[in-house]
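Supplementary notes for students who missed Thursday's class. We covered one full example, reproduced here. Read the sequence, then the structure, then the short commentary at the end.
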Amino acid sequence: MAVQINPSILSADFARLADEAQAVEGADWLHVDVMDNHFVPNLTLGVPVVESLARATDTPLDCHLMIEAPDRWAPQYVEAGAGSVTFHVEAAAAPVRLAREIRAKGARASMALRPATPIEPYEDLLPELDMLLIMTVEPGFGGQAFLDIMLPKIRRTRELISKHGLELWLQVDGGVSAATIEQCADAGADVFVAGSAVYGAADPAEAVRALRTQAEATTAKASWACDH
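Structure (token representation):
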């Protein structure tokens, strides 16, 4: 269970995205938040910017679509160069079909759940996915405080993944920092999205390394990881 750190460019300087992508050398993925001002009350970037970012960095892009009608738009992000595409189950009309289409186009398929969305109704969908994203803040804005009430949900999700013997990454996004990453790792997360904790640091690359060290140390002694 390898720990992965995904800096979120939502906290980067949008006027210098190519440079900001280079500033987190050593990150596993670059997390790209796509917001449409409909599914969430914010507007960020779209396909053209993803295409440009894919040309500007060797770090693979992890696109998190906080948008309506992901069934229509998600495949375009694969074509734009995303290596992983996350859609929100609350917005998807046909999540299984969409996950299969994303995979067929050559990217990893991921499904996100808002804080109030339970994991249990989607247990049967898990084999169709490469990653599951548990939001630890309400989606839409960066810099929010971590919702520790999501920790039991992360644990339950890890238990379901283990129950079915799946090689499914479990990502957390929202308020992940040096103060919260160990709680997330202990609960069962292995992919961590960090925005201001990375881009707000004096040395973003060092912040990535430090977060990785924390998460790896916690994972090494976590009960869920020791069972594997």
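Commentary. The chain has a mean pLDDT of 96. The radius of gyration is 16 Å. If anything here is unclear, bring it to office hours.
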